[in-house]
Design goal:
Elements (H helix, E strand, L loop, with lengths): L9 H10 L6 H11 L13 H10 L5 E8 L6 E7 L4 E11 L2 E7 L3 E3 L8 H5 L1 E4 L2 H15 L5 E4 L9 H12 L11 E5 L3 H9 L5 E5 L5 H7 L2 H4 L2 H11 L7 E7 L6 H10 L5 E7 L12 H13 L4 E4 L12 H6 L1
Parallel strand pairs: 4-7, 7-8, 8-9, 9-10, 10-11, 11-12
Antiparallel strand pairs: 1-2, 2-3, 3-4, 5-6
Helix pairs in contact: 1-2, 5-6, 7-10, 11-12
The structure holds iron/sulfur cluster.
Protein backbone atom coordinates (compact mmCIF):
# COMPACT_ATOMS: atom_id res chain seq x y z
CA UNK A 1 0.00 0.00 0.00
CA UNK A 2 1.21 3.55 -0.76
CA UNK A 3 1.99 5.80 2.25
CA UNK A 4 -0.40 8.56 3.31
CA UNK A 5 0.64 12.04 2.20
CA UNK A 6 -0.81 13.46 5.45
CA UNK A 7 1.91 11.64 7.41
CA UNK A 8 4.39 14.27 6.13
CA UNK A 9 5.41 17.11 8.43
CA UNK A 10 6.15 20.42 6.71
CA UNK A 11 9.91 19.81 6.94
CA UNK A 12 9.52 16.31 5.47
CA UNK A 13 7.40 17.70 2.62
CA UNK A 14 10.06 20.35 1.89
CA UNK A 15 12.76 17.66 1.71
CA UNK A 16 10.53 15.58 -0.55
CA UNK A 17 9.94 18.43 -3.01
CA UNK A 18 13.64 19.33 -3.10
CA UNK A 19 14.53 15.69 -3.76
CA UNK A 20 12.39 15.70 -6.92
CA UNK A 21 13.72 19.05 -8.19
CA UNK A 22 10.82 21.22 -6.96
CA UNK A 23 11.10 24.33 -4.80
CA UNK A 24 10.61 23.75 -1.05
CA UNK A 25 7.76 26.34 -0.93
CA UNK A 26 5.64 23.70 -2.68
CA UNK A 27 5.32 22.11 0.78
CA UNK A 28 3.31 25.09 2.03
CA UNK A 29 1.16 24.96 -1.10
CA UNK A 30 0.57 21.25 -0.52
CA UNK A 31 -0.49 21.89 3.08
CA UNK A 32 -2.80 24.65 1.95
CA UNK A 33 -4.55 22.28 -0.48
CA UNK A 34 -4.70 19.40 1.99
CA UNK A 35 -5.90 21.26 5.07
CA UNK A 36 -7.22 24.75 4.35
CA UNK A 37 -8.86 23.86 1.03
CA UNK A 38 -9.48 20.28 2.17
CA UNK A 39 -9.36 18.79 -1.34
CA UNK A 40 -10.09 15.12 -2.03
CA UNK A 41 -7.71 14.54 -4.96
CA UNK A 42 -4.25 15.61 -6.08
CA UNK A 43 -5.77 16.62 -9.44
CA UNK A 44 -7.45 19.59 -7.74
CA UNK A 45 -4.03 21.09 -6.88
CA UNK A 46 -4.10 23.38 -9.89
CA UNK A 47 -0.94 25.36 -9.11
CA UNK A 48 1.06 22.11 -9.40
CA UNK A 49 2.23 20.95 -12.84
CA UNK A 50 0.57 17.93 -14.42
CA UNK A 51 3.79 15.95 -13.86
CA UNK A 52 3.91 16.87 -10.18
CA UNK A 53 0.27 15.88 -9.66
CA UNK A 54 0.98 12.59 -11.42
CA UNK A 55 4.01 12.01 -9.17
CA UNK A 56 1.92 12.63 -6.02
CA UNK A 57 -0.84 10.36 -7.35
CA UNK A 58 1.66 7.58 -8.06
CA UNK A 59 3.47 7.92 -4.72
CA UNK A 60 0.88 8.75 -2.04
CA UNK A 61 -2.67 8.13 -0.84
CA UNK A 62 -4.48 11.36 -0.08
CA UNK A 63 -7.20 10.08 2.24
CA UNK A 64 -6.51 7.72 5.13
CA UNK A 65 -10.12 7.07 6.18
CA UNK A 66 -13.54 6.35 4.71
CA UNK A 67 -16.79 7.43 6.36
CA UNK A 68 -18.79 4.36 7.34
CA UNK A 69 -21.63 5.85 9.34
CA UNK A 70 -22.71 9.04 11.13
CA UNK A 71 -25.31 9.80 13.78
CA UNK A 72 -26.74 13.06 15.09
CA UNK A 73 -28.04 13.42 18.64
CA UNK A 74 -31.59 14.79 18.80
CA UNK A 75 -30.85 15.95 22.36
CA UNK A 76 -27.88 18.30 21.87
CA UNK A 77 -26.85 18.17 18.17
CA UNK A 78 -23.70 16.15 18.87
CA UNK A 79 -22.56 14.35 15.71
CA UNK A 80 -20.76 11.07 15.87
CA UNK A 81 -18.78 9.58 12.99
CA UNK A 82 -17.55 6.08 12.41
CA UNK A 83 -14.57 5.80 10.04
CA UNK A 84 -13.01 2.77 8.41
CA UNK A 85 -9.23 2.61 8.12
CA UNK A 86 -7.41 1.28 5.05
CA UNK A 87 -6.82 -2.04 6.87
CA UNK A 88 -10.55 -2.46 7.65
CA UNK A 89 -10.61 -1.31 11.27
CA UNK A 90 -13.02 1.19 12.82
CA UNK A 91 -12.43 4.41 14.70
CA UNK A 92 -14.77 7.13 15.79
CA UNK A 93 -14.84 10.87 16.28
CA UNK A 94 -17.39 13.27 17.69
CA UNK A 95 -18.34 16.83 16.78
CA UNK A 96 -19.65 18.59 19.87
CA UNK A 97 -21.69 21.79 19.59
CA UNK A 98 -21.62 23.85 22.70
CA UNK A 99 -23.07 27.30 23.24
CA UNK A 100 -20.74 29.37 25.35
CA UNK A 101 -21.90 32.93 26.11
CA UNK A 102 -24.03 32.82 22.95
CA UNK A 103 -20.98 31.98 20.83
CA UNK A 104 -21.07 28.48 19.44
CA UNK A 105 -18.01 26.39 20.24
CA UNK A 106 -17.39 23.54 17.85
CA UNK A 107 -15.11 20.87 19.21
CA UNK A 108 -13.93 17.77 17.39
CA UNK A 109 -13.05 14.90 19.69
CA UNK A 110 -10.60 12.63 17.87
CA UNK A 111 -9.21 9.14 18.36
CA UNK A 112 -5.51 8.35 18.63
CA UNK A 113 -5.49 4.54 18.76
CA UNK A 114 -7.64 1.62 17.64
CA UNK A 115 -8.80 0.21 20.96
CA UNK A 116 -6.81 0.90 24.11
CA UNK A 117 -4.58 -1.08 26.45
CA UNK A 118 -5.11 1.04 29.56
CA UNK A 119 -8.04 -0.98 30.89
CA UNK A 120 -10.11 1.75 32.60
CA UNK A 121 -13.12 -0.11 34.01
CA UNK A 122 -15.71 2.54 33.02
CA UNK A 123 -14.60 2.69 29.38
CA UNK A 124 -16.13 0.95 26.37
CA UNK A 125 -12.93 1.25 24.31
CA UNK A 126 -11.01 -0.67 26.98
CA UNK A 127 -13.24 -3.68 26.31
CA UNK A 128 -12.01 -3.85 22.70
CA UNK A 129 -8.43 -4.28 23.90
CA UNK A 130 -5.56 -2.61 22.04
CA UNK A 131 -5.34 -3.12 18.26
CA UNK A 132 -2.85 -0.56 16.99
CA UNK A 133 -1.68 3.06 17.05
CA UNK A 134 -3.13 5.46 14.50
CA UNK A 135 -0.72 7.10 12.06
CA UNK A 136 -0.64 10.94 12.00
CA UNK A 137 -2.64 10.90 8.72
CA UNK A 138 -5.38 8.80 10.31
CA UNK A 139 -5.60 11.24 13.23
CA UNK A 140 -5.67 14.33 10.99
CA UNK A 141 -8.07 12.88 8.42
CA UNK A 142 -10.80 12.72 11.09
CA UNK A 143 -10.78 16.53 11.08
CA UNK A 144 -10.67 16.72 7.25
CA UNK A 145 -13.70 14.45 6.92
CA UNK A 146 -15.77 16.07 9.67
CA UNK A 147 -15.17 19.57 8.32
CA UNK A 148 -16.14 18.41 4.84
CA UNK A 149 -19.23 16.42 5.88
CA UNK A 150 -20.60 18.91 8.40
CA UNK A 151 -19.64 22.04 6.49
CA UNK A 152 -18.61 23.50 9.85
CA UNK A 153 -15.24 24.90 10.87
CA UNK A 154 -14.40 23.63 14.32
CA UNK A 155 -12.37 25.83 16.63
CA UNK A 156 -11.31 23.22 19.20
CA UNK A 157 -9.66 19.81 19.08
CA UNK A 158 -9.56 17.35 21.94
CA UNK A 159 -7.63 14.09 21.86
CA UNK A 160 -10.29 12.40 23.95
CA UNK A 161 -11.70 9.76 21.59
CA UNK A 162 -10.57 6.16 21.44
CA UNK A 163 -7.15 5.38 22.83
CA UNK A 164 -4.55 6.88 25.16
CA UNK A 165 -2.80 9.67 23.20
CA UNK A 166 0.41 9.46 25.25
CA UNK A 167 0.81 5.77 24.37
CA UNK A 168 1.12 7.02 20.77
CA UNK A 169 3.18 10.08 21.69
CA UNK A 170 5.16 10.77 18.50
CA UNK A 171 2.23 10.35 16.10
CA UNK A 172 -0.14 12.38 18.28
CA UNK A 173 2.28 15.28 18.68
CA UNK A 174 3.13 15.23 14.97
CA UNK A 175 -0.61 15.37 14.17
CA UNK A 176 -1.12 18.20 16.69
CA UNK A 177 1.70 20.21 15.06
CA UNK A 178 0.15 19.72 11.60
CA UNK A 179 -3.28 20.81 12.92
CA UNK A 180 -1.58 23.87 14.38
CA UNK A 181 0.42 25.01 11.27
CA UNK A 182 -0.63 28.49 10.19
CA UNK A 183 -1.11 27.69 6.48
CA UNK A 184 -3.16 24.53 6.96
CA UNK A 185 -5.96 24.06 9.48
CA UNK A 186 -4.43 26.84 11.60
CA UNK A 187 -5.99 25.71 14.87
CA UNK A 188 -4.41 27.65 17.73
CA UNK A 189 -2.31 25.63 20.18
CA UNK A 190 -4.51 26.99 22.99
CA UNK A 191 -7.46 25.27 21.31
CA UNK A 192 -5.83 21.84 21.12
CA UNK A 193 -6.09 19.64 24.21
CA UNK A 194 -4.40 16.32 24.78
CA UNK A 195 -6.24 14.21 27.30
CA UNK A 196 -4.44 11.44 29.17
CA UNK A 197 -5.30 8.92 31.86
CA UNK A 198 -1.96 9.84 33.46
CA UNK A 199 1.12 8.35 31.73
CA UNK A 200 3.66 10.01 34.05
CA UNK A 201 6.82 9.76 31.94
CA UNK A 202 5.05 11.03 28.80
CA UNK A 203 3.55 13.96 30.74
CA UNK A 204 7.02 14.87 31.97
CA UNK A 205 8.39 14.64 28.42
CA UNK A 206 5.52 16.84 27.15
CA UNK A 207 6.34 19.51 29.73
CA UNK A 208 10.11 19.29 29.23
CA UNK A 209 9.71 19.59 25.44
CA UNK A 210 7.67 22.76 26.06
CA UNK A 211 4.82 21.62 23.87
CA UNK A 212 2.30 24.47 23.55
CA UNK A 213 -0.90 22.42 23.81
CA UNK A 214 -3.32 22.12 26.72
CA UNK A 215 -3.23 19.06 28.87
CA UNK A 216 -6.12 17.25 30.53
CA UNK A 217 -5.72 14.41 33.02
CA UNK A 218 -8.51 12.02 33.99
CA UNK A 219 -8.36 11.80 37.75
CA UNK A 220 -11.73 10.35 38.84
CA UNK A 221 -10.57 9.38 42.36
CA UNK A 222 -8.45 11.13 44.93
CA UNK A 223 -7.35 8.02 46.85
CA UNK A 224 -4.75 5.82 45.18
CA UNK A 225 -6.31 2.57 46.42
CA UNK A 226 -9.67 3.54 44.92
CA UNK A 227 -8.28 4.96 41.67
CA UNK A 228 -6.31 1.75 41.12
CA UNK A 229 -9.56 -0.23 40.93
CA UNK A 230 -11.04 1.69 37.99
CA UNK A 231 -7.81 3.01 36.42
CA UNK A 232 -4.97 0.44 36.40
CA UNK A 233 -2.56 3.17 35.19
CA UNK A 234 -2.45 4.24 38.87
CA UNK A 235 -0.28 1.16 39.59
CA UNK A 236 2.49 2.37 37.27
CA UNK A 237 2.06 6.12 37.64
CA UNK A 238 0.39 7.09 40.93
CA UNK A 239 -1.48 10.36 40.51
CA UNK A 240 0.12 11.79 43.67
CA UNK A 241 3.54 11.57 41.96
CA UNK A 242 2.20 13.27 38.82
CA UNK A 243 0.61 16.02 40.92
CA UNK A 244 3.92 16.60 42.72
CA UNK A 245 5.69 16.88 39.37
CA UNK A 246 3.14 19.52 38.30
CA UNK A 247 3.55 21.38 41.55
CA UNK A 248 7.30 21.54 40.92
CA UNK A 249 7.35 22.10 37.15
CA UNK A 250 4.26 23.95 36.11
CA UNK A 251 4.92 27.70 36.16
CA UNK A 252 1.76 29.75 36.43
CA UNK A 253 1.88 31.08 32.87
CA UNK A 254 2.43 27.77 31.03
CA UNK A 255 0.08 25.19 29.50
CA UNK A 256 -3.36 24.99 30.99
CA UNK A 257 -4.02 21.87 33.02
CA UNK A 258 -7.53 20.51 33.24
CA UNK A 259 -8.36 17.80 35.72
CA UNK A 260 -11.22 15.68 34.41
CA UNK A 261 -13.34 14.10 37.10
CA UNK A 262 -16.29 11.83 36.29
CA UNK A 263 -18.64 12.06 39.27
CA UNK A 264 -19.92 8.90 40.93
CA UNK A 265 -21.86 8.44 44.11
CA UNK A 266 -18.72 7.42 46.01
CA UNK A 267 -16.05 9.87 44.78
CA UNK A 268 -17.45 13.32 45.59
CA UNK A 269 -17.21 13.52 49.36
CA UNK A 270 -15.94 16.51 51.32
CA UNK A 271 -12.65 14.59 51.87
CA UNK A 272 -12.31 14.15 48.11
CA UNK A 273 -12.64 17.92 47.62
CA UNK A 274 -9.97 18.63 50.25
CA UNK A 275 -7.57 16.01 48.89
CA UNK A 276 -8.00 17.39 45.39
CA UNK A 277 -7.16 20.91 46.51
CA UNK A 278 -4.13 19.68 48.48
CA UNK A 279 -2.84 17.46 45.69
CA UNK A 280 -2.56 20.25 43.11
CA UNK A 281 -1.90 23.07 45.61
CA UNK A 282 0.84 24.78 43.57
CA UNK A 283 -0.50 24.14 40.05
CA UNK A 284 -3.00 26.24 38.20
CA UNK A 285 -5.74 23.77 37.44
CA UNK A 286 -9.26 23.85 36.16
CA UNK A 287 -11.53 21.09 37.37
CA UNK A 288 -13.89 19.69 34.76
CA UNK A 289 -16.65 17.69 36.45
CA UNK A 290 -18.57 15.31 34.21
CA UNK A 291 -21.83 13.58 34.88
CA UNK A 292 -21.47 9.83 34.58
CA UNK A 293 -22.52 8.50 31.16
CA UNK A 294 -25.23 5.86 31.16
CA UNK A 295 -23.93 2.42 30.22
CA UNK A 296 -23.44 -1.05 31.56
CA UNK A 297 -20.53 -0.04 33.82
CA UNK A 298 -22.37 -0.83 37.07
CA UNK A 299 -21.41 2.49 38.71
CA UNK A 300 -23.82 4.52 40.84
CA UNK A 301 -24.90 8.01 39.78
CA UNK A 302 -24.51 10.68 42.46
CA UNK A 303 -27.51 12.54 43.83
CA UNK A 304 -28.09 16.13 42.73
CA UNK A 305 -27.56 17.40 46.31
CA UNK A 306 -24.22 15.55 46.53
CA UNK A 307 -23.01 17.22 43.34
CA UNK A 308 -24.06 20.66 44.57
CA UNK A 309 -22.30 20.20 47.92
CA UNK A 310 -19.09 19.00 46.21
CA UNK A 311 -19.04 21.99 43.85
CA UNK A 312 -19.72 24.42 46.69
CA UNK A 313 -16.84 23.04 48.75
CA UNK A 314 -14.42 23.30 45.82
CA UNK A 315 -15.51 26.84 45.06
CA UNK A 316 -14.97 27.87 48.68
CA UNK A 317 -11.39 26.58 48.30
CA UNK A 318 -11.00 28.64 45.08
CA UNK A 319 -10.74 25.66 42.74
CA UNK A 320 -12.16 26.76 39.34
CA UNK A 321 -14.89 24.28 38.47
CA UNK A 322 -16.90 23.65 35.33
CA UNK A 323 -19.60 21.03 35.07
CA UNK A 324 -20.56 19.37 31.87
CA UNK A 325 -23.05 16.78 30.87
CA UNK A 326 -22.02 13.77 28.82
CA UNK A 327 -22.66 14.79 25.24
CA UNK A 328 -24.72 12.73 22.84
CA UNK A 329 -26.12 10.30 25.37
CA UNK A 330 -28.75 9.11 22.87
CA UNK A 331 -26.10 8.23 20.24
CA UNK A 332 -23.49 6.46 22.35
CA UNK A 333 -21.44 9.61 22.91
CA UNK A 334 -18.74 8.16 25.16
CA UNK A 335 -15.49 6.98 23.63
CA UNK A 336 -15.52 3.57 22.01
CA UNK A 337 -19.26 3.00 22.29
CA UNK A 338 -20.16 3.28 18.62
CA UNK A 339 -17.22 1.42 17.12
CA UNK A 340 -17.40 -1.23 19.86
CA UNK A 341 -20.99 -1.96 18.91
CA UNK A 342 -20.24 -1.86 15.22
CA UNK A 343 -17.44 -4.38 15.41
S1 LIG B 1 -10.68 5.95 29.29
FE1 LIG B 1 -9.15 6.46 27.73
S2 LIG B 1 -7.22 5.61 28.58
FE2 LIG B 1 -8.89 4.62 29.73
S3 LIG B 1 -9.25 2.72 28.58
FE3 LIG B 1 -10.66 4.29 27.76
S4 LIG B 1 -9.61 5.13 25.99
FE4 LIG B 1 -8.08 4.06 27.23
Amino acid sequence: MKPFVKNLSLEEAEILFESIGEKPYRAKQLFNWLYEKNVTSFDEMTNFSKELRQYLNDTYLLSALELEKSQVSSVDGTQKYLFKTADGKYIESVLIRNDNNEKERLTICISSQIGCAMGCSFCQTARMGFKRNLEPAEIIDQVNHIRRISGLLNNNIVFMGMGEPFMNYDNVLKAADILNYSFGFHISARKITISTCGIGDAIERFIDEERPYNLAISLNDTLSEKRRVSMPVENGFPIAGIAEMFNKKFPVSRNRLTIVYVMRKDNITSEDAKRLKKMFRYSRIKLNLIELNPGDHGLDHPLKEQIEAFIKELEIMNVPVSVRKSFGTDIDGACGQLSGKYE
